[in-house]
Amino acid sequence: MITKADRLNDVKEYYFSKKLREVAALRNEGKPVINIAIGSPDLNPPKSVINAIKTAVDIPNAHQYQSYQGIPELREGISNFYKDKYKVILNANSEILPLMGSKEGIMHISLAFLNKGDKVLIPNPGYPTYASVTNLVEAESILYNLNDANNWLPNFEELEKEDLKNVKIMWINYPHMPTGAVASKEDFKQLITFAKKHQILIVNDNPYSFILNEKPLSILEVEGAKEVAIELNSLSKTFNMAGWRVGMVVGDAEIIKTILQVKSNMDSGMFYGIQKGAVEAFKLSKDWFKSQNEIYEERRSLVWEIFDSLNCTYNKNIGGLFVWAKLPEGIKSEEITDELLYTKNVFITPGTIFGSNGEGYIRASLCVDKNVLTEVLNRLTTVKI
Ligand SMILES: Cc1ncc(COP(=O)(O)O)c(C=O)c1O
Protein backbone atom coordinates (compact mmCIF):
# COMPACT_ATOMS: atom_id res chain seq x y z
CA MET A 1 0.00 0.00 0.00
CA ILE A 2 1.46 3.34 -1.02
CA THR A 3 0.74 5.87 1.71
CA LYS A 4 -0.10 9.47 0.98
CA ALA A 5 1.96 12.36 2.25
CA ASP A 6 1.37 13.52 5.82
CA ARG A 7 0.76 17.03 4.52
CA LEU A 8 -2.57 15.84 3.17
CA ASN A 9 -3.82 14.80 6.59
CA ASP A 10 -5.49 18.15 7.21
CA VAL A 11 -6.48 18.91 3.63
CA LYS A 12 -9.90 17.88 2.40
CA GLU A 13 -11.06 17.67 -1.18
CA TYR A 14 -12.42 21.09 -2.20
CA TYR A 15 -16.13 21.34 -1.23
CA PHE A 16 -17.31 22.11 -4.76
CA SER A 17 -15.21 19.33 -6.26
CA LYS A 18 -17.13 16.86 -4.07
CA LYS A 19 -20.57 18.49 -4.12
CA LEU A 20 -20.63 18.94 -7.88
CA ARG A 21 -20.20 15.17 -8.25
CA GLU A 22 -23.35 14.81 -6.16
CA VAL A 23 -25.15 17.41 -8.28
CA ALA A 24 -24.07 15.55 -11.46
CA ALA A 25 -25.36 12.27 -9.99
CA LEU A 26 -28.73 13.89 -9.17
CA ARG A 27 -28.95 15.25 -12.72
CA ASN A 28 -28.15 11.77 -14.08
CA GLU A 29 -31.13 10.49 -12.12
CA GLY A 30 -33.21 13.06 -14.01
CA LYS A 31 -33.43 15.73 -11.29
CA PRO A 32 -33.45 19.21 -12.87
CA VAL A 33 -30.91 20.72 -10.45
CA ILE A 34 -30.23 24.45 -10.81
CA ASN A 35 -26.84 25.53 -9.57
CA ILE A 36 -26.74 29.04 -8.12
CA ALA A 37 -23.77 28.22 -5.92
CA ILE A 38 -20.71 28.86 -8.01
CA GLY A 39 -19.03 32.09 -9.10
CA SER A 40 -18.06 31.02 -12.58
CA PRO A 41 -19.19 33.80 -14.95
CA ASP A 42 -21.69 32.50 -17.50
CA LEU A 43 -21.42 35.58 -19.72
CA ASN A 44 -18.96 35.66 -22.62
CA PRO A 45 -15.60 37.37 -22.60
CA PRO A 46 -15.43 40.48 -24.80
CA LYS A 47 -15.38 39.89 -28.59
CA SER A 48 -11.95 41.52 -28.97
CA VAL A 49 -10.53 39.00 -26.50
CA ILE A 50 -11.94 36.04 -28.40
CA ASN A 51 -10.71 37.44 -31.71
CA ALA A 52 -7.24 37.89 -30.24
CA ILE A 53 -6.90 34.25 -29.19
CA LYS A 54 -8.24 33.11 -32.58
CA THR A 55 -5.70 35.24 -34.44
CA ALA A 56 -2.91 34.20 -32.10
CA VAL A 57 -3.12 30.49 -32.93
CA ASP A 58 -1.91 31.18 -36.48
CA ILE A 59 1.09 33.20 -35.40
CA PRO A 60 4.48 31.47 -35.77
CA ASN A 61 5.93 30.44 -32.38
CA ALA A 62 2.53 30.75 -30.68
CA HIS A 63 2.67 27.09 -29.70
CA GLN A 64 6.12 27.13 -28.17
CA TYR A 65 6.96 27.58 -24.50
CA GLN A 66 6.45 31.17 -23.43
CA SER A 67 8.38 33.46 -21.10
CA TYR A 68 8.17 32.58 -17.39
CA GLN A 69 7.28 36.21 -16.72
CA GLY A 70 4.65 36.55 -19.44
CA ILE A 71 5.05 38.44 -22.69
CA PRO A 72 6.15 42.09 -22.21
CA GLU A 73 2.93 43.30 -23.88
CA LEU A 74 0.87 41.61 -21.16
CA ARG A 75 2.93 43.10 -18.34
CA GLU A 76 2.60 46.52 -20.02
CA GLY A 77 -1.16 45.96 -20.23
CA ILE A 78 -1.35 45.13 -16.52
CA SER A 79 0.79 48.15 -15.65
CA ASN A 80 -1.47 50.49 -17.68
CA PHE A 81 -4.58 48.92 -16.14
CA TYR A 82 -3.30 49.49 -12.61
CA LYS A 83 -2.39 53.09 -13.47
CA ASP A 84 -5.72 53.79 -15.12
CA LYS A 85 -8.03 52.01 -12.68
CA TYR A 86 -6.25 52.35 -9.33
CA LYS A 87 -3.66 55.13 -9.90
CA VAL A 88 -0.98 52.65 -8.87
CA ILE A 89 2.34 52.83 -10.70
CA LEU A 90 3.93 49.45 -11.37
CA ASN A 91 7.15 48.76 -13.20
CA ALA A 92 6.16 46.37 -15.98
CA ASN A 93 9.56 44.66 -15.93
CA SER A 94 9.92 43.99 -12.26
CA GLU A 95 6.71 44.54 -10.29
CA ILE A 96 4.26 42.34 -12.20
CA LEU A 97 4.06 38.58 -12.56
CA PRO A 98 1.25 37.13 -14.70
CA LEU A 99 -0.30 33.98 -13.26
CA MET A 100 -2.45 31.17 -14.57
CA GLY A 101 -5.33 32.42 -12.45
CA SER A 102 -4.86 34.04 -9.08
CA LYS A 103 -5.57 30.73 -7.28
CA GLU A 104 -2.17 29.32 -8.21
CA GLY A 105 -0.60 32.48 -6.79
CA ILE A 106 -1.81 31.48 -3.32
CA MET A 107 0.37 28.38 -3.52
CA HIS A 108 3.37 30.17 -5.08
CA ILE A 109 3.32 32.93 -2.46
CA SER A 110 3.02 30.41 0.36
CA LEU A 111 5.87 28.28 -0.99
CA ALA A 112 7.98 31.39 -1.46
CA PHE A 113 7.61 32.77 2.06
CA LEU A 114 6.49 30.13 4.54
CA ASN A 115 8.61 27.67 6.43
CA LYS A 116 7.14 24.72 8.28
CA GLY A 117 5.50 26.04 11.47
CA ASP A 118 5.26 29.67 10.36
CA LYS A 119 1.91 31.24 11.15
CA VAL A 120 -0.59 32.69 8.71
CA LEU A 121 -3.57 34.95 9.42
CA ILE A 122 -6.61 33.72 7.53
CA PRO A 123 -10.08 35.32 7.37
CA ASN A 124 -13.04 33.45 8.85
CA PRO A 125 -15.18 33.41 6.76
CA GLY A 126 -12.93 33.45 3.71
CA TYR A 127 -11.85 31.73 0.51
CA PRO A 128 -11.07 28.14 1.60
CA THR A 129 -7.87 27.89 -0.47
CA TYR A 130 -5.89 30.12 1.94
CA ALA A 131 -6.23 27.54 4.73
CA SER A 132 -5.76 24.46 2.54
CA VAL A 133 -2.59 25.83 0.97
CA THR A 134 -1.31 26.84 4.41
CA ASN A 135 -1.84 23.22 5.49
CA LEU A 136 -0.19 21.89 2.35
CA VAL A 137 2.99 23.86 3.05
CA GLU A 138 2.85 22.74 6.70
CA ALA A 139 2.43 26.23 8.10
CA GLU A 140 -0.08 27.05 10.83
CA SER A 141 -3.38 28.87 10.24
CA ILE A 142 -4.58 31.49 12.70
CA LEU A 143 -8.16 32.23 11.77
CA TYR A 144 -9.16 35.83 12.40
CA ASN A 145 -12.81 36.69 12.94
CA LEU A 146 -14.86 38.70 10.53
CA ASN A 147 -18.46 39.41 11.40
CA ASP A 148 -21.45 41.46 10.43
CA ALA A 149 -21.12 43.78 13.43
CA ASN A 150 -17.67 44.83 12.18
CA ASN A 151 -18.73 45.03 8.52
CA TRP A 152 -16.65 41.89 7.90
CA LEU A 153 -13.46 43.89 8.43
CA PRO A 154 -10.58 42.78 10.67
CA ASN A 155 -10.93 43.62 14.33
CA PHE A 156 -7.48 45.00 15.23
CA GLU A 157 -8.09 44.92 18.98
CA GLU A 158 -8.74 41.20 18.74
CA LEU A 159 -5.81 40.66 16.37
CA GLU A 160 -3.39 42.43 18.71
CA LYS A 161 -4.29 39.91 21.44
CA GLU A 162 -2.99 37.04 19.28
CA ASP A 163 0.59 35.85 19.57
CA LEU A 164 1.80 37.40 16.32
CA LYS A 165 5.50 36.56 16.74
CA ASN A 166 5.78 33.96 14.00
CA VAL A 167 3.11 35.34 11.69
CA LYS A 168 4.55 35.76 8.24
CA ILE A 169 1.53 36.27 5.96
CA MET A 170 -1.94 37.77 6.39
CA TRP A 171 -4.53 37.00 3.70
CA ILE A 172 -7.12 39.65 3.08
CA ASN A 173 -9.64 39.84 0.28
CA TYR A 174 -11.60 43.04 -0.36
CA PRO A 175 -14.16 43.20 -1.89
CA HIS A 176 -14.61 40.21 0.35
CA MET A 177 -15.77 36.80 -0.76
CA PRO A 178 -18.21 35.44 0.40
CA THR A 179 -19.79 38.46 2.11
CA GLY A 180 -19.24 41.18 -0.51
CA ALA A 181 -17.92 43.60 2.14
CA VAL A 182 -15.83 46.42 0.73
CA ALA A 183 -12.80 47.96 2.44
CA SER A 184 -12.15 51.70 2.24
CA LYS A 185 -8.73 53.25 1.69
CA GLU A 186 -8.75 54.09 5.39
CA ASP A 187 -9.28 50.38 6.20
CA PHE A 188 -6.37 49.46 3.95
CA LYS A 189 -4.23 52.12 5.67
CA GLN A 190 -4.93 50.53 9.04
CA LEU A 191 -3.98 47.13 7.65
CA ILE A 192 -0.69 48.47 6.30
CA THR A 193 0.11 50.08 9.66
CA PHE A 194 -0.62 46.74 11.39
CA ALA A 195 1.56 44.85 8.88
CA LYS A 196 4.46 47.26 9.30
CA LYS A 197 4.25 47.07 13.08
CA HIS A 198 4.39 43.27 13.07
CA GLN A 199 6.46 42.77 9.90
CA ILE A 200 3.80 40.69 8.19
CA LEU A 201 3.35 40.31 4.44
CA ILE A 202 -0.23 41.26 3.59
CA VAL A 203 -1.67 39.72 0.45
CA ASN A 204 -4.84 41.37 -0.82
CA ASP A 205 -6.69 38.97 -3.07
CA ASN A 206 -8.63 41.36 -5.29
CA PRO A 207 -10.60 39.52 -8.01
CA TYR A 208 -13.95 41.27 -7.37
CA SER A 209 -12.90 44.90 -7.67
CA PHE A 210 -14.99 45.67 -10.71
CA ILE A 211 -18.17 43.76 -9.96
CA LEU A 212 -20.96 45.90 -8.51
CA ASN A 213 -18.38 48.09 -6.85
CA GLU A 214 -18.46 51.80 -7.56
CA LYS A 215 -14.97 52.56 -6.35
CA PRO A 216 -12.46 49.84 -7.21
CA LEU A 217 -9.48 50.04 -4.86
CA SER A 218 -6.08 48.41 -4.67
CA ILE A 219 -4.27 48.10 -1.37
CA LEU A 220 -1.21 49.41 -3.20
CA GLU A 221 -2.89 52.82 -3.39
CA VAL A 222 -1.87 53.34 0.24
CA GLU A 223 1.41 55.21 0.49
CA GLY A 224 4.27 52.91 1.46
CA ALA A 225 2.09 49.81 0.97
CA LYS A 226 4.62 48.08 -1.28
CA GLU A 227 6.96 47.60 1.69
CA VAL A 228 4.60 45.04 3.23
CA ALA A 229 1.78 44.29 0.79
CA ILE A 230 1.29 42.59 -2.54
CA GLU A 231 -1.90 42.07 -4.50
CA LEU A 232 -3.43 39.24 -6.47
CA ASN A 233 -5.78 40.16 -9.26
CA SER A 234 -7.63 38.19 -11.89
CA LEU A 235 -9.36 38.34 -15.25
CA SER A 236 -11.72 35.52 -14.27
CA LYS A 237 -14.59 37.68 -13.04
CA THR A 238 -13.70 41.09 -14.45
CA PHE A 239 -13.68 39.85 -18.05
CA ASN A 240 -15.59 36.54 -17.79
CA MET A 241 -12.41 34.58 -18.42
CA ALA A 242 -12.48 32.12 -15.49
CA GLY A 243 -11.68 29.10 -17.66
CA TRP A 244 -8.80 30.85 -19.40
CA ARG A 245 -6.79 30.86 -16.19
CA VAL A 246 -5.19 34.27 -16.19
CA GLY A 247 -4.39 36.60 -13.33
CA MET A 248 -1.42 38.35 -11.78
CA VAL A 249 0.48 39.18 -8.65
CA VAL A 250 1.84 42.69 -8.32
CA GLY A 251 4.03 44.54 -5.85
CA ASP A 252 7.59 45.17 -4.78
CA ALA A 253 10.22 43.89 -7.25
CA GLU A 254 12.13 41.79 -4.69
CA ILE A 255 8.95 40.04 -3.55
CA ILE A 256 7.88 39.38 -7.14
CA LYS A 257 11.35 37.98 -7.89
CA THR A 258 11.03 35.59 -4.94
CA ILE A 259 7.64 34.37 -6.19
CA LEU A 260 9.12 33.86 -9.66
CA GLN A 261 11.81 31.71 -8.07
CA VAL A 262 9.02 29.27 -7.16
CA LYS A 263 6.77 29.70 -10.18
CA SER A 264 9.50 29.30 -12.80
CA ASN A 265 10.08 25.82 -11.41
CA MET A 266 6.42 24.87 -11.65
CA ASP A 267 5.24 25.77 -15.14
CA SER A 268 6.74 26.80 -18.43
CA GLY A 269 4.82 29.92 -19.32
CA MET A 270 1.23 30.70 -20.25
CA PHE A 271 -0.19 29.89 -23.70
CA TYR A 272 0.54 32.78 -26.07
CA GLY A 273 -3.06 33.10 -27.27
CA ILE A 274 -4.34 33.48 -23.71
CA GLN A 275 -1.85 36.25 -23.08
CA LYS A 276 -2.87 38.03 -26.30
CA GLY A 277 -6.52 37.77 -25.24
CA ALA A 278 -5.67 39.23 -21.83
CA VAL A 279 -3.85 42.13 -23.48
CA GLU A 280 -7.07 43.01 -25.33
CA ALA A 281 -9.14 42.75 -22.16
CA PHE A 282 -7.03 45.40 -20.44
CA LYS A 283 -7.77 47.81 -23.29
CA LEU A 284 -11.55 47.79 -22.79
CA SER A 285 -13.36 51.03 -22.10
CA LYS A 286 -15.72 51.90 -19.22
CA ASP A 287 -18.63 50.60 -21.32
CA TRP A 288 -17.55 47.02 -20.71
CA PHE A 289 -17.76 47.36 -16.94
CA LYS A 290 -21.05 49.25 -17.18
CA SER A 291 -22.69 46.62 -19.38
CA GLN A 292 -21.63 43.76 -17.11
CA ASN A 293 -22.76 45.51 -13.96
CA GLU A 294 -26.17 46.29 -15.40
CA ILE A 295 -26.74 42.57 -15.95
CA TYR A 296 -25.47 41.70 -12.47
CA GLU A 297 -27.67 44.38 -10.89
CA GLU A 298 -30.79 42.92 -12.48
CA ARG A 299 -29.82 39.44 -11.35
CA ARG A 300 -29.04 40.64 -7.85
CA SER A 301 -32.57 42.01 -7.46
CA LEU A 302 -33.90 38.55 -8.29
CA VAL A 303 -31.52 36.91 -5.81
CA TRP A 304 -32.77 39.36 -3.16
CA GLU A 305 -36.31 38.17 -3.93
CA ILE A 306 -35.16 34.55 -3.64
CA PHE A 307 -33.68 35.29 -0.23
CA ASP A 308 -36.81 37.20 0.81
CA SER A 309 -38.81 34.09 0.03
CA LEU A 310 -36.53 32.17 2.41
CA ASN A 311 -37.00 34.83 5.12
CA CYS A 312 -33.31 35.70 5.00
CA THR A 313 -31.79 39.14 5.59
CA TYR A 314 -28.93 40.67 3.64
CA ASN A 315 -26.95 43.86 3.21
CA LYS A 316 -27.70 45.68 -0.03
CA ASN A 317 -24.55 47.82 0.11
CA ILE A 318 -22.06 45.21 -0.92
CA GLY A 319 -19.93 44.40 -3.97
CA GLY A 320 -18.82 41.29 -5.80
CA LEU A 321 -20.40 38.39 -7.57
CA PHE A 322 -22.51 36.95 -4.75
CA VAL A 323 -25.28 37.74 -2.33
CA TRP A 324 -24.57 36.69 1.24
CA ALA A 325 -27.65 36.23 3.36
CA LYS A 326 -28.39 35.56 7.02
CA LEU A 327 -30.78 32.72 7.71
CA PRO A 328 -33.57 33.05 10.27
CA GLU A 329 -32.37 32.37 13.82
CA GLY A 330 -31.68 28.71 14.58
CA ILE A 331 -31.46 27.47 10.98
CA LYS A 332 -28.22 25.71 10.10
CA SER A 333 -26.54 26.49 6.77
CA GLU A 334 -25.88 22.95 5.56
CA GLU A 335 -29.26 21.66 6.69
CA ILE A 336 -31.13 24.23 4.63
CA THR A 337 -28.87 23.97 1.55
CA ASP A 338 -29.23 20.17 1.54
CA GLU A 339 -33.00 20.50 2.00
CA LEU A 340 -33.20 22.91 -0.93
CA LEU A 341 -31.03 20.62 -3.05
CA TYR A 342 -33.01 17.46 -2.32
CA THR A 343 -36.53 18.89 -2.24
CA LYS A 344 -36.35 21.85 -4.64
CA ASN A 345 -33.43 20.88 -6.88
CA VAL A 346 -31.70 24.17 -6.10
CA PHE A 347 -28.04 24.17 -5.19
CA ILE A 348 -26.99 27.12 -2.96
CA THR A 349 -23.72 27.42 -1.05
CA PRO A 350 -23.78 26.93 2.73
CA GLY A 351 -21.84 29.67 4.53
CA THR A 352 -19.95 27.11 6.61
CA ILE A 353 -17.65 26.11 3.75
CA PHE A 354 -15.98 29.49 4.25
CA GLY A 355 -15.35 28.89 7.95
CA SER A 356 -17.22 28.58 11.23
CA ASN A 357 -18.31 32.25 11.12
CA GLY A 358 -20.30 31.34 8.01
CA GLU A 359 -22.72 29.30 10.11
CA GLY A 360 -26.21 30.74 9.81
CA TYR A 361 -25.53 32.18 6.34
CA ILE A 362 -25.96 31.08 2.73
CA ARG A 363 -24.45 32.46 -0.47
CA ALA A 364 -25.91 32.70 -3.96
CA SER A 365 -24.04 33.49 -7.14
CA LEU A 366 -24.94 36.10 -9.74
CA CYS A 367 -23.50 33.95 -12.54
CA VAL A 368 -26.95 32.69 -13.46
CA ASP A 369 -29.30 33.95 -16.18
CA LYS A 370 -32.31 35.95 -14.96
CA ASN A 371 -34.75 33.38 -16.41
CA VAL A 372 -33.10 30.66 -14.38
CA LEU A 373 -33.23 32.82 -11.26
CA THR A 374 -36.93 33.39 -11.91
CA GLU A 375 -37.40 29.60 -12.08
CA VAL A 376 -35.57 29.28 -8.74
CA LEU A 377 -37.89 31.89 -7.28
CA ASN A 378 -40.90 29.91 -8.53
CA ARG A 379 -39.59 26.73 -6.99
CA LEU A 380 -38.81 28.37 -3.66
CA THR A 381 -41.97 30.32 -3.12
CA THR A 382 -43.58 27.02 -2.24
CA VAL A 383 -41.06 26.39 0.57
CA LYS A 384 -41.03 28.51 3.69
CA ILE A 385 -38.45 28.07 6.39
C1 LIG B 1 -11.52 35.19 -3.18
C2 LIG B 1 -11.06 34.47 -4.39
N1 LIG B 1 -9.76 34.45 -4.67
C3 LIG B 1 -9.29 33.82 -5.74
C4 LIG B 1 -10.13 33.15 -6.61
C5 LIG B 1 -9.55 32.42 -7.77
O1 LIG B 1 -9.66 33.15 -8.94
P1 LIG B 1 -8.87 32.76 -10.24
O2 LIG B 1 -9.88 32.29 -11.20
O3 LIG B 1 -8.18 34.01 -10.66
O4 LIG B 1 -7.88 31.69 -9.89
C6 LIG B 1 -11.50 33.13 -6.35
C7 LIG B 1 -12.38 32.37 -7.23
O5 LIG B 1 -13.51 32.08 -7.01
C8 LIG B 1 -11.97 33.80 -5.20
O6 LIG B 1 -13.28 33.83 -4.90
UniProtKB/TrEMBL annotation:
In this protein, which residues make up the domain named Aminotransferase class I/classII large?
32-380
Looking up Gene3D superfamilies in the UniProt record yields: Aspartate Aminotransferase, domain 1, Type I PLP-dependent aspartate aminotransferase-like (Major domain)
InterPro entries noted in UniProt: Aminotransferase_I/II_large, LL-DAP_aminotransferase, NHTrfase_class1_PyrdxlP-BS, PyrdxlP-dep_Trfase, PyrdxlP-dep_Trfase_major, PyrdxlP-dep_Trfase_small
Which keywords describe this protein according to UniProt? Aminotransferase, Transferase
Q: What is its EC number?
A: 2.6.1.-
Please give one Gene Ontology molecular function term for this protein.
Answer: transaminase activity
Q: Which Pfam families does the annotation name?
A: Aminotran_1_2
| Cofactor list | pyridoxal 5'-phosphate
Top EC group = transferase
To which protein family does this belong? Belongs to the class-I pyridoxal-phosphate-dependent aminotransferase family.
UniProt protein name: Aminotransferase
Q: Please spell out the taxonomic lineage of the organism that makes this protein.
A: Bacteria, Pseudomonadati, Bacteroidota, Flavobacteriia, Flavobacteriales
